[in-house]
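Sample 3 of the quickstart, ligand 3-(2-carboxyethyl)benzoic acid:
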Amino acid sequence: MAPTLPSDGCSYQLSHEPDAHETLDHDVLARIHFGTHLSTAQDPREVNIALPQTGGAPVAEVWRSRRPVEHGWSDGFGYAHDGEVLFGHLRLEEGELTDLVRATAHAYLRIDLLLRRLGYPCWLRMWNFLGHINHGEGDAERYRQFSQGRHDALARQPGFEGRLPAATAIGTQEGGMTVYFLAARDPGAQIENPRQVSAFRYPPTYGPKSPSFSRACLKRWADCSHLFVSGTASVVGHRTLHPGDLLAQLDETHRNVEALLGEASAFEPAAGPFRAAALKVYIRPGHEDPALLPRVRQLFGDQVPLLCLVGDICRRDLLLEIEGLFTATAHGASAQAAA
Ligand code: 3EB
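Result:
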């Protein structure tokens, strides 16, 4: 089957495709399925995330490249790369998480080793899916233990707070942990949100070690720029705003995403305007609301590909979180200027 060439000028691209299980095309870096009772696949580019989809026909997240893709398994990781970007993933079963702090630290150190070995040492974007993320009280909460382990691993590198990847951390109903990620040969730029305290500077009320992620990562490729926007929620300063009010949390989240787009454009004005290539919306179970997705479309654009997932948000008073990939092509900027 002929590879589907990316259409927006970027040499690799994310699309939402009807969920299917046929053999992957050669140009695929990764295909991520979301749902319960997913069947396991042997291809190292296939990932399953145990989160139900809501609000439409099920889709898979598919990353495709214009360059030749190589893939394989190494140290338990499935990976694929195309000379510029690397995709990888790791699954830990619940039985491997009895000491969650150490298990997370070990997993993150193994990721670092894999990335160095394959020649893509620069972390861009991490997705973390952890069973029962809100179980446990106080600093024994699983999310806080995960944060501590991640910090323990990343803090081994001096200056790590200036090179943090964008991230998502979401809870699943099934146990275990699945991590998937993108990395590059050369670094992206860490973008923070002026409306929010950087997560890596959160006070200890949110856990013994602050969460090691950046609000966004801006990566300039040969032919386009990608802005990876982390899971973004109704947090201003370091506090949750609008507890209990899903739609108000959505509006606040949108303001946070807008602030990040503003920061990214100020950081790299030549990139051209950023447009949303794909968004994921996570809703806490029991808080699905038919008014939500229409409002998301109103705020972020009618046409934007949306994947809507039901999962626990890592802070208990947050009802929703939104992440996205935004693309800018200097070509897009000149086309707009000419119009
Ligand atoms: C927040 O702003 C919401 O620990 O990797 C969002 C995205 C959140 C990523 C993470 C946490 C993480 O603090 C929570």
